[in-house]
Amino acid sequence: MGNPITPNRLEKLVPKADLPAKEDLFSNNELYNMVDTQIQAYINGDDYHCEPGGIGYFVGDLLSSLSYWERDEFNYLYNDLSLSHWFMYAAFLSTESSLPEDFYPNAEQGNEYFSRTEDLEDFWDDHSDNISLFALSPRILRNGPLMLQVLDFVFGVPPEQGVIYVDYVLQMFDIYPFIGYMFPMWTLNAFASTWGAQNTIAMGDGMTQFFETVGLETVGPEYVLYHEFAHHVQFATNAGYRGSPERSRRTELMADFLAGYYATHYFGSLSVEETDRSENIIMASMAAYNAGECAFHSPGHHGTPNQRKRAILTAKEVIESESDRTEIIPARELIAKFDEIYEKKIVVPDAVPADVDP
Ligand SMILES: [Zn+2]
Fold first, then answer.
1. Is residue 183 pLDDT above 80, yes or no?
2. Under a CB-based contact definition with an 8 Å cutoff, are residues 345 and 314 in contact?
3. CA 48 to centroid of ligand 1, rounded, Å
């Protein structure tokens, strides 16, 4: 393997031409486009202006705390070896749920995800079957067989060469621990995906680490899980739209609406009396997504913070307007309600892009 202090860099990895489009596989990827935009803006200096929101500052702070050599190595791993993609595709190719202890920061959090997912499955009448939960973590690197499968699937790298790539990254994680297993940039993400019979929700270490820095480590990841599960409700009811910022925004705001419905329903995660907690849930969603400007023209656009907040609050209103608040509205009916009020109540009051600085 050469000198462990300065191993030679390997050839850049290029995705296979026949790889299913990332947009198709990870269209519900919550933060990837945004984080990537932030990183590129940072790496390329002042190429373009992008006003960072909460996550943007988090990314900026992390990157500016790197030493010259760490930054150089991070750029190489991120851009040339597409390391964050290794983990995304691992979530996608893995056929099993992770173990509770695989989730950040501990098994307790993992167990919370599993029991909450069972609860969500009971709550919603329509959703994908057999949803597996995947701990999106740089520790997946230690799963050799899965990593080799990923490198082959994504980049067409045969296993005998794949081993060299995996070893290289492991060495770098040893040499530069700050950009290693605990570095949030690798997995600042969460997504729901469906492919063949495989239905997955991936929860990134980096996402939970971000929530820790803003004091929302309890409600933040919880809200993200409701939102990801809502995508699986959409998959089962064919209710998602993709392909343009406007379509993506509608899909994401619908997922927020469904997540908000679950969060505030009597049989959901919160009793209707617990207003403080539902406020927290709203704050969590805001914190996670308040850099929407940077992804404004992205096919993965999620809506502005105000629109997202309104999607959640509107769901709460729907519950409050019911005479029997213990009734759970079937998913399809709820989605029809959303479609009815979408333009007027959720989008228009925040006319695009009035709240964005030029
Ligand atoms: Zn989403």
1. yes
2. yes
3. 26
